[in-house]
Amino acid sequence: MRILNFPILVYENILKHLQPSELLLLSFCSLRTRALVSRMRHTPTHSIFVLVRPEEMNYALVNEPEKEEIVITWNWENEKMGGVRTERIKSKYIDLECRITFKKNSNTPVLWCSFENQSSRKRFATVLHSHMCEVFHVKPEMQFKLSLDYMNELPYTNTVRDVTLLDTTVNSQVVDEFFEKFHVTRALFSKSCKRNNPLKDSCKFHQINNLFIDCSSWIDGSYLLKFDCQNLVAIVPSVRENSLIKFVNQWLEGKYTKLRTMAVLLDTDVDAPIVLNQFSLAPWNAEEDKINYDLP
């Protein structure tokens, strides 16, 4: 590789101008290029596996929720592999024959791989993450963003930092299986807008520390009382004044010992003064009323 023939200051300057996806491909070229990329000053960050369509997975770097930067995509649609020229990707954990293309808009590399079975796909995802941890200083705890229709494609792990759930066709039994298999250590983001969200009939996620639930018309007053989290943010158009008053009273009486903050977006016809007049309130004082906890 010609870059290796340059003086050290030259190729170090070249590497500084490469995108993460370009550095990733370079790190696959040889053990020497892997070492070059690894010696760079990478800002420690998290990563996320994105599964939103069949036969395709994305791996992205992310510092904030919903702001992931996809660095590589791999696809296992075997009918598109016939008769094409393949490249060999090899690293400490990876030895793979595949076709490489690039997305037009983002220039993200796409690997077209003839994975023979699901276990080989899961193994590739797992070792790719290990490679990113060692070379790019990615933090080891994984994150997922997926439709649970593709849950069985996820890499081998028992713990997950954050999970974002998208629209799915599965039932609550599959949801329970997911939360039994993966221990979510930080936050659950539900992005499904379907009224028949399978979370409705699941109880396995109620104790996740941080819950962010969009379009949750299925959460009524009685369901609101089931949560046992630290921080709850939810759009709850079905919750009425009496239910919210009951929830806050139980919180003040000490029932929800874990709960620190709650933000609920109610329906427009909910009479806020009816709720607020039930409690002794004082203006917020940023100097005196300090809340000390790690933001989710």
UniProtKB/TrEMBL annotation:
Transmembrane segments: none annotated. InterPro entries: F-box_dom (IPR001810). Residues 1-52 form the F-box domain. PROSITE patterns: FBOX. It holds the Pfam family F-box. PANTHER family: F-BOX ASSOCIATED DOMAIN-CONTAINING PROTEIN-RELATED, F-BOX-CONTAINING HYPOTHETICAL PROTEIN C.ELEGANS. This is F-box domain-containing protein. It comes from Caenorhabditis remanei (Caenorhabditis vulgaris).
